[in-house]
Design brief:
Family: Belongs to the binding-protein-dependent transport system permease family.
Number of helices: 13
Distance between the termini: 47 Å
Number of strands: 0
Strand content: under 5%
Membrane topology: Multi-pass membrane protein
Order of helices and strands: HHHHHHHHHHHHH
Structural class: mainly alpha
CATH architecture of the largest domain: Orthogonal Bundle
Subcellular location: Cell membrane
Number of domains: 2
CATH class of the largest domain: Mainly Alpha
GO cellular component, one term: plasma membrane
CATH superfamily of the largest domain: MetI-like
Protein name: Trehalose/maltose transport system permease protein
Shape: globular
Length: 279
Protein backbone atom coordinates (compact mmCIF):
# COMPACT_ATOMS: atom_id res chain seq x y z
CA UNK A 1 0.00 0.00 0.00
CA UNK A 2 2.81 2.41 0.87
CA UNK A 3 4.65 1.48 -2.29
CA UNK A 4 1.52 2.07 -4.37
CA UNK A 5 0.97 5.55 -2.86
CA UNK A 6 4.64 6.40 -3.41
CA UNK A 7 4.41 5.22 -7.02
CA UNK A 8 1.36 7.38 -7.65
CA UNK A 9 3.11 10.38 -6.11
CA UNK A 10 6.19 9.85 -8.29
CA UNK A 11 3.97 9.42 -11.35
CA UNK A 12 2.19 12.71 -10.56
CA UNK A 13 5.51 14.49 -10.06
CA UNK A 14 6.78 13.14 -13.38
CA UNK A 15 3.64 14.31 -15.18
CA UNK A 16 3.86 17.80 -13.70
CA UNK A 17 7.58 17.95 -14.44
CA UNK A 18 7.01 16.97 -18.07
CA UNK A 19 4.24 19.55 -18.35
CA UNK A 20 6.55 22.23 -16.94
CA UNK A 21 9.29 21.34 -19.44
CA UNK A 22 6.86 21.46 -22.39
CA UNK A 23 5.35 24.75 -21.18
CA UNK A 24 8.81 26.29 -20.77
CA UNK A 25 9.88 25.06 -24.21
CA UNK A 26 6.81 26.50 -25.96
CA UNK A 27 6.24 29.71 -23.98
CA UNK A 28 9.79 30.93 -23.37
CA UNK A 29 10.36 32.14 -26.99
CA UNK A 30 7.22 34.28 -26.75
CA UNK A 31 8.26 35.64 -23.38
CA UNK A 32 11.74 36.47 -24.68
CA UNK A 33 10.23 38.17 -27.73
CA UNK A 34 8.09 40.40 -25.52
CA UNK A 35 10.97 41.07 -23.11
CA UNK A 36 13.30 41.99 -25.98
CA UNK A 37 10.69 44.32 -27.46
CA UNK A 38 10.94 46.41 -24.28
CA UNK A 39 14.69 46.93 -24.68
CA UNK A 40 16.67 49.17 -26.97
CA UNK A 41 20.29 49.77 -27.88
CA UNK A 42 22.89 47.65 -26.14
CA UNK A 43 20.34 46.61 -23.50
CA UNK A 44 19.03 44.05 -25.99
CA UNK A 45 22.13 41.94 -25.33
CA UNK A 46 21.79 42.05 -21.53
CA UNK A 47 20.28 38.91 -20.01
CA UNK A 48 17.52 40.37 -17.86
CA UNK A 49 14.36 38.37 -17.35
CA UNK A 50 12.38 41.33 -15.95
CA UNK A 51 13.20 44.35 -18.13
CA UNK A 52 11.95 47.85 -17.50
CA UNK A 53 8.62 48.72 -19.13
CA UNK A 54 9.83 50.99 -21.90
CA UNK A 55 7.56 51.17 -24.93
CA UNK A 56 9.83 53.17 -27.21
CA UNK A 57 9.95 50.40 -29.80
CA UNK A 58 6.16 50.09 -29.87
CA UNK A 59 5.76 53.84 -30.27
CA UNK A 60 8.23 53.85 -33.16
CA UNK A 61 6.52 50.93 -34.89
CA UNK A 62 2.96 52.20 -34.43
CA UNK A 63 3.95 55.66 -35.66
CA UNK A 64 5.30 54.15 -38.87
CA UNK A 65 2.67 54.53 -41.56
CA UNK A 66 4.22 51.79 -43.71
CA UNK A 67 3.86 49.19 -40.93
CA UNK A 68 0.26 50.17 -40.21
CA UNK A 69 -0.49 49.92 -43.91
CA UNK A 70 1.08 46.46 -43.94
CA UNK A 71 -1.15 45.43 -41.04
CA UNK A 72 -4.20 46.54 -43.00
CA UNK A 73 -3.00 44.71 -46.12
CA UNK A 74 -2.48 41.49 -44.16
CA UNK A 75 -5.93 41.79 -42.64
CA UNK A 76 -7.56 42.36 -46.04
CA UNK A 77 -5.69 39.45 -47.64
CA UNK A 78 -6.29 37.01 -44.79
CA UNK A 79 -9.99 37.88 -44.45
CA UNK A 80 -10.50 37.61 -48.22
CA UNK A 81 -8.76 34.23 -48.35
CA UNK A 82 -10.90 32.92 -45.49
CA UNK A 83 -14.15 34.13 -47.07
CA UNK A 84 -13.35 32.82 -50.55
CA UNK A 85 -11.83 29.51 -49.46
CA UNK A 86 -14.68 28.72 -47.08
CA UNK A 87 -17.32 29.65 -49.66
CA UNK A 88 -15.77 27.47 -52.35
CA UNK A 89 -14.97 24.68 -49.88
CA UNK A 90 -18.57 24.51 -48.64
CA UNK A 91 -19.85 24.14 -52.21
CA UNK A 92 -17.23 21.51 -53.03
CA UNK A 93 -17.83 19.69 -49.73
CA UNK A 94 -21.55 19.41 -50.47
CA UNK A 95 -20.87 18.01 -53.92
CA UNK A 96 -18.19 15.58 -52.74
CA UNK A 97 -19.85 14.60 -49.48
CA UNK A 98 -23.56 14.38 -50.31
CA UNK A 99 -23.82 13.68 -54.05
CA UNK A 100 -22.96 10.21 -55.37
CA UNK A 101 -20.94 10.25 -58.57
CA UNK A 102 -18.00 8.36 -59.98
CA UNK A 103 -14.53 9.68 -59.24
CA UNK A 104 -15.18 11.24 -55.85
CA UNK A 105 -12.26 9.50 -54.15
CA UNK A 106 -9.70 10.38 -56.86
CA UNK A 107 -10.80 14.01 -56.69
CA UNK A 108 -10.38 14.03 -52.90
CA UNK A 109 -6.90 12.54 -53.16
CA UNK A 110 -6.06 15.06 -55.88
CA UNK A 111 -6.95 17.90 -53.52
CA UNK A 112 -4.81 16.32 -50.83
CA UNK A 113 -1.88 15.83 -53.22
CA UNK A 114 -2.02 19.45 -54.38
CA UNK A 115 -1.71 20.69 -50.80
CA UNK A 116 1.47 18.63 -50.32
CA UNK A 117 3.53 20.50 -52.92
CA UNK A 118 6.14 22.83 -51.35
CA UNK A 119 5.66 26.51 -52.04
CA UNK A 120 9.00 26.89 -53.78
CA UNK A 121 7.99 24.26 -56.35
CA UNK A 122 4.92 26.32 -57.32
CA UNK A 123 6.61 29.71 -57.29
CA UNK A 124 7.73 30.00 -60.92
CA UNK A 125 4.45 28.73 -62.36
CA UNK A 126 2.41 30.98 -60.11
CA UNK A 127 4.56 33.96 -61.01
CA UNK A 128 3.83 33.48 -64.71
CA UNK A 129 0.10 33.04 -64.06
CA UNK A 130 -0.06 36.16 -61.91
CA UNK A 131 1.77 38.23 -64.50
CA UNK A 132 -0.53 36.89 -67.25
CA UNK A 133 -3.60 37.81 -65.16
CA UNK A 134 -2.24 41.29 -64.47
CA UNK A 135 -2.22 40.78 -60.71
CA UNK A 136 1.48 41.39 -60.08
CA UNK A 137 2.12 43.84 -57.22
CA UNK A 138 -1.50 43.76 -56.09
CA UNK A 139 -3.19 42.19 -53.08
CA UNK A 140 -5.15 40.07 -55.51
CA UNK A 141 -1.98 38.15 -56.37
CA UNK A 142 -1.61 37.07 -52.74
CA UNK A 143 -5.27 36.13 -52.42
CA UNK A 144 -4.99 34.06 -55.60
CA UNK A 145 -1.76 32.39 -54.42
CA UNK A 146 -2.91 31.66 -50.87
CA UNK A 147 -6.01 29.87 -52.12
CA UNK A 148 -3.69 27.14 -53.42
CA UNK A 149 -2.75 25.89 -49.97
CA UNK A 150 -5.87 26.87 -47.98
CA UNK A 151 -8.62 25.65 -50.32
CA UNK A 152 -7.54 21.96 -50.60
CA UNK A 153 -7.24 21.61 -46.82
CA UNK A 154 -10.63 23.25 -46.25
CA UNK A 155 -12.28 21.03 -48.86
CA UNK A 156 -10.77 17.89 -47.31
CA UNK A 157 -11.87 18.72 -43.76
CA UNK A 158 -15.33 20.03 -44.65
CA UNK A 159 -16.06 17.12 -46.99
CA UNK A 160 -15.23 14.59 -44.30
CA UNK A 161 -17.36 16.55 -41.83
CA UNK A 162 -20.22 16.80 -44.35
CA UNK A 163 -20.21 13.03 -44.85
CA UNK A 164 -20.67 12.51 -41.12
CA UNK A 165 -23.97 14.45 -41.02
CA UNK A 166 -27.09 12.23 -40.96
CA UNK A 167 -28.81 11.83 -44.32
CA UNK A 168 -32.24 11.68 -42.69
CA UNK A 169 -32.14 15.44 -42.06
CA UNK A 170 -31.34 16.16 -45.70
CA UNK A 171 -34.02 13.75 -46.94
CA UNK A 172 -36.63 15.38 -44.69
CA UNK A 173 -35.69 18.81 -46.04
CA UNK A 174 -35.98 17.56 -49.63
CA UNK A 175 -39.44 16.17 -48.85
CA UNK A 176 -40.40 19.63 -47.58
CA UNK A 177 -39.33 21.15 -50.90
CA UNK A 178 -35.99 22.68 -49.89
CA UNK A 179 -33.51 23.38 -52.66
CA UNK A 180 -29.85 22.26 -52.30
CA UNK A 181 -28.82 25.86 -51.65
CA UNK A 182 -31.35 26.24 -48.86
CA UNK A 183 -30.37 22.88 -47.37
CA UNK A 184 -26.75 23.97 -47.21
CA UNK A 185 -27.54 27.46 -45.90
CA UNK A 186 -30.24 26.65 -43.35
CA UNK A 187 -29.38 23.10 -42.24
CA UNK A 188 -25.76 22.20 -42.87
CA UNK A 189 -24.05 25.51 -42.10
CA UNK A 190 -25.32 25.72 -38.48
CA UNK A 191 -24.25 22.11 -37.91
CA UNK A 192 -20.82 22.75 -39.43
CA UNK A 193 -19.97 25.62 -37.10
CA UNK A 194 -16.95 23.98 -35.37
CA UNK A 195 -15.47 22.80 -38.67
CA UNK A 196 -15.94 26.21 -40.28
CA UNK A 197 -14.32 28.01 -37.35
CA UNK A 198 -11.36 25.64 -37.20
CA UNK A 199 -10.63 25.66 -40.94
CA UNK A 200 -11.26 29.40 -41.22
CA UNK A 201 -8.93 30.20 -38.33
CA UNK A 202 -6.16 27.99 -39.70
CA UNK A 203 -6.54 29.57 -43.15
CA UNK A 204 -6.38 33.03 -41.57
CA UNK A 205 -3.20 32.19 -39.64
CA UNK A 206 -1.55 30.64 -42.70
CA UNK A 207 -2.36 33.69 -44.84
CA UNK A 208 -1.35 36.13 -42.10
CA UNK A 209 2.09 34.53 -41.62
CA UNK A 210 2.99 33.68 -45.23
CA UNK A 211 6.29 35.20 -46.38
CA UNK A 212 7.61 33.66 -49.62
CA UNK A 213 4.74 34.56 -51.95
CA UNK A 214 4.36 37.99 -50.33
CA UNK A 215 8.04 38.72 -50.92
CA UNK A 216 7.90 37.54 -54.54
CA UNK A 217 4.62 38.95 -55.82
CA UNK A 218 4.61 42.36 -54.09
CA UNK A 219 7.04 45.10 -55.10
CA UNK A 220 5.99 48.32 -53.34
CA UNK A 221 5.57 49.29 -49.68
CA UNK A 222 1.93 50.24 -50.22
CA UNK A 223 0.95 46.62 -50.93
CA UNK A 224 3.34 44.70 -48.67
CA UNK A 225 2.03 42.48 -45.89
CA UNK A 226 3.27 42.26 -42.32
CA UNK A 227 5.85 39.42 -42.58
CA UNK A 228 7.74 41.20 -45.36
CA UNK A 229 7.40 44.57 -43.64
CA UNK A 230 8.99 43.15 -40.49
CA UNK A 231 11.85 41.62 -42.48
CA UNK A 232 12.55 45.01 -44.10
CA UNK A 233 12.68 47.02 -40.87
CA UNK A 234 16.01 48.83 -40.81
CA UNK A 235 18.01 50.67 -38.19
CA UNK A 236 19.15 54.29 -38.08
CA UNK A 237 22.37 53.29 -39.86
CA UNK A 238 23.70 50.42 -41.92
CA UNK A 239 25.56 49.10 -38.87
CA UNK A 240 22.54 48.92 -36.60
CA UNK A 241 20.22 45.93 -36.61
CA UNK A 242 16.93 46.94 -34.94
CA UNK A 243 16.29 43.88 -32.78
CA UNK A 244 13.98 45.77 -30.43
CA UNK A 245 11.81 47.19 -33.20
CA UNK A 246 11.58 43.81 -34.92
CA UNK A 247 10.56 42.14 -31.66
CA UNK A 248 7.96 44.83 -31.00
CA UNK A 249 6.49 44.41 -34.49
CA UNK A 250 6.50 40.61 -34.09
CA UNK A 251 4.68 40.93 -30.77
CA UNK A 252 2.03 43.19 -32.28
CA UNK A 253 1.49 40.67 -35.07
CA UNK A 254 1.60 37.52 -32.95
CA UNK A 255 -0.46 38.39 -29.87
CA UNK A 256 -3.80 38.71 -31.74
CA UNK A 257 -3.29 35.26 -33.28
CA UNK A 258 -2.60 33.74 -29.87
CA UNK A 259 -5.73 35.38 -28.44
CA UNK A 260 -7.84 34.09 -31.35
CA UNK A 261 -6.45 30.58 -30.96
CA UNK A 262 -7.17 30.58 -27.22
CA UNK A 263 -10.71 31.89 -27.71
CA UNK A 264 -11.59 29.32 -30.38
CA UNK A 265 -9.48 26.36 -29.23
CA UNK A 266 -12.59 24.36 -28.28
CA UNK A 267 -13.98 24.72 -31.80
CA UNK A 268 -10.60 23.97 -33.38
CA UNK A 269 -10.27 20.67 -31.52
CA UNK A 270 -13.88 19.56 -32.09
CA UNK A 271 -13.94 20.65 -35.73
CA UNK A 272 -10.67 18.99 -36.75
CA UNK A 273 -11.38 15.86 -34.70
CA UNK A 274 -14.80 15.42 -36.29
CA UNK A 275 -13.36 16.00 -39.73
CA UNK A 276 -10.56 13.54 -39.13
CA UNK A 277 -12.26 10.52 -37.63
CA UNK A 278 -15.78 10.54 -39.02
CA UNK A 279 -16.94 9.60 -42.47
Amino acid sequence: MVRSATGRRLHRIAIYGLFAVVALYTLFPFYWMIASSLKSGQAIFDVTFLPDLKFNNYEAILSDGVFLRSLLNSLVVAASVVALSLGLAIAAAYALGRIDFRGRSPIMFLFLAVSMFPQIALLSGLFEMIRWLGLYNTLGSLIFAYMIFTLPFNIWVLTTFMRSLPRQIEEAAIMDGCSPLRIVRCIFLPMMGPALISTGLLAFIASWNEFLFALTFILTDENRTVPVAIALISGSSRYEFPYGAIMAASTIVTVPLIVMALLFQKYIVSGLTAGAVKG
